[in-house]
Amino acid sequence: NAGVTQTPKFQVLKTGQSMTLQCAQDMNHEYMSWYRQDPGMGLRLIHYSVGAGITDQGEVPNGYNVSRSTTEDFPLRLLSAAPSQTSVYFCASSYGPRAGGPSEQYFGPGTRLTVT
Amino acid sequence: AQSVAQPEDQVNVAEGNPLTVKCTYSVSGNPYLFWYVQYPNRGLQFLLKYITGDNLVKGSYGFEAEFNKSQTSFHLKKPSALVSDSALYFCAGKKAAGNKLTFGGGTRVLVKP
Fold first, then answer.
1. Which of A94, A91, A114, A116 is nearest to A104 (CA)?
2. In this predicted model, what pLDDT tens digit does every residue of B52-95 receive, in sequence order?
3. Site from A29, A104, A112 to mutate, B interface, most B CB atoms within 10 angstroms
4. Could you give the CA distance from residue B5 to residue B31 in angstroms, rounded to a whole number?
């Protein structure tokens, strides 16, 4: 299994540009999520999904969109990039509630995004 | 709203000495609590979790954590630290029936030879 994969690894954007961060998992996990990691603030949840066709907002959803058309993929879209979105973005997946009990999350390697 | 706090930004310990990384939580009801470790330029790796039952949870790489409901704490411990344990450690928690995991700010551990 490849686990959780993310592309690209690095990205530089200009203010106002849009882009999509890709995330895929091959573990048939129901639950997928996106976090951003900023120094001293830990990881903050942006959006999450409990299954194909179902998404919900996390702690810091503004400026980001998600969709979940398949179990495997969970792309994150930046609509109009701002310098405040400079961060490291992590995608994670886990078994969902129907699997029974809380499952730990598996994290991708991250995407380092800089917005100038 | 739920929250997780890690009161120490950095912990320094000599190799072979005990290591403790502190975590306190504010999660309603019965919490599910997790510890993750992050090595430089890598994603987070799961260490251990508390769901219910025994307050002492054993995890990967010799780590363990103690759940204390009265003090709302879930401290991570290792009896004898290794230089290779130097990394960034995150505590996280969620409600039993919730879908949102909340992370603490992270604690950098530096183990000196």
1. A94
2. 888 999 999 999 999 999 999 999 999 999 999 999 999 999 98
3. A104
4. 14
> Counting beta carbons within 10 angstroms of the beta carbon of residue A10, is it exposed (0 to 12), middle (13 to 18) or buried (19 or more)?
exposed
End-to-end CA distance of chain A: 36
Query: Which residues of A are less than 8 Å from B42 in CB distance?
Result: 109-110
Partner residue opposite B99 with nearest CB, options A50, A92, A109: A50
Residue of A nearest to B44 (CA): A107
Q: Which candidate, B24, B22, B18, places its Cα nearest to that of B8?
A: B22
pLDDT tens digits along A46-66: 999 999 999 999 999 999 999
Element (H, E) at A114: strand A111-115
Chain-centre distance for alpha carbon B29: 20
**Cβ neighbours of A110 in B, within 8 Å:** 41-43
Q: Which residues between 12 and 51 in chain A have a beta carbon less than 8 angstroms from any beta carbon of chain B?
A: 31, 33, 35, 40-45, 48, 50
Q: Are strands B3-5 and B24-26 parallel, antiparallel or unpaired?
A: antiparallel
Which has the closest alpha carbon to B59: B31, B36, B83, B82? B36
A101 — pLDDT class (breaks 50, 70, 90): low
Which residues does chain A have within 8 Å of residue B51's beta carbon, measured at their own beta carbons? 101-102
Which residues in chain B are contacts of A48 at CB distance < 8 A? 99-100
